[in-house]
Design a protein that fits this description.
The protein has helices at 14-23, 31-41, 43-52, 64-70, 75-99, 132-140, 147-156, 160-166, 177-190, and strands at residues 2-7, 28-30, 57-58, 61-62, 105-109, 124-129, 169-172. The chain is of the alpha/beta class and 197 residues long. The protein folds into two domains: 1-27 and 100-113 and 122-191, P-loop containing nucleotide triphosphate hydrolases (Rossmann fold, 3-Layer(aba) Sandwich), CATH 3.40.50.300; 40-94, no CATH class. α2 (31-41) packs across α5 (75-99). It is globular and about 50 Å long. Keywords: ATP-binding, Coenzyme A biosynthesis, Cytoplasm, Kinase, Nucleotide-binding, Transferase. It comes from Sphingomonas piscis. Its EC number is 2.7.1.24.
Length: 197
């Protein structure tokens, strides 16, 4: 089994590329989606987050919008938040691997792969990239996104050029979708996974 990490900064098109791999028959683990699920369902986690960020929890429910606004303001509390979440995501990832034990390859969409030092756990790393102007326009088109919030997110992320330099493969998404799909197909062929379609 080949374990492939898919990463890239905000607004680069990771989810779109991950869907293209899924369409080619490669199971995808979406770390952000798992975080959202855990934050919605794990009562113990929600209670622990409430101790760190009281304003983000009301009546036992986590307000992710409030949390996203408050967490970057305190690096110390943000680190504690990540220490609560990451072990739970790892459990889900291990379950995903076990559930797909016979797959020839698995793709793991992990936005902060390099920032958390996790690249060593994977056989190959793919970085999704786009021109800065396109990245910014995409990110600012998201609901609730502001220029200030985007700048705060980018400040926590490794620069795109550094991610590109550390990748086994780079997928540029500042062209049309068919060109992006061809890049995905080429990588699948390069890894000898074309039969998994």
């Amino acid at each position: 089994m080949i374990k492939i990490a898919l990463t890239g900064s905000i607004g680069m098109g990771k989810s779109t590329v991950a869907q293209m791999f899924a369409a080619q028959g490669i199971p995808v683990f979406d770390a952000d989606a798992e975080v959202r699920a855990i934050q919605a369902d794990d009562a113990d986690l929600i209670a622990a987050i409430g101790k760190l960020f009281p304003d983000a929890v009301r009546a036992g429910r986590l307000d992710r919008t409030v949390l996203a606004r408050l967490a970057p303001m305190s690096p110390e509390r943000l680190a504690k938040l990540e220490a609560l979440i990451h072990p739970r995501v790892r459990i889900r990832r291990d379950e995903f691997i076990a559930a797909h034990a016979t797959a020839r390859a698995l793709l793991f969409e992990i936005p902060l792969l390099f920032e958390t030092g996790g690249e060593g756990e994977f056989d190959k790393v793919i970085v999704v990239s786009a021109l800065p102007g396109i990245q910014r326009a995409r990110a600012l088109a998201r609901p609730g996104m502001t220029a200030a919030k985007l700048d705060a997110i980018l400040a926590r992320q490794m620069p795109d050029r550094d991610k590109r330099s550390r990748a086994d493969f780079v997928i540029d998404t500042d062209t049309d979708l068919s060109t992006t799909e061809r890049q995905v197909t080429d990588i699948i062929a390069c890894l000898g996974l074309a039969q998994s379609r």
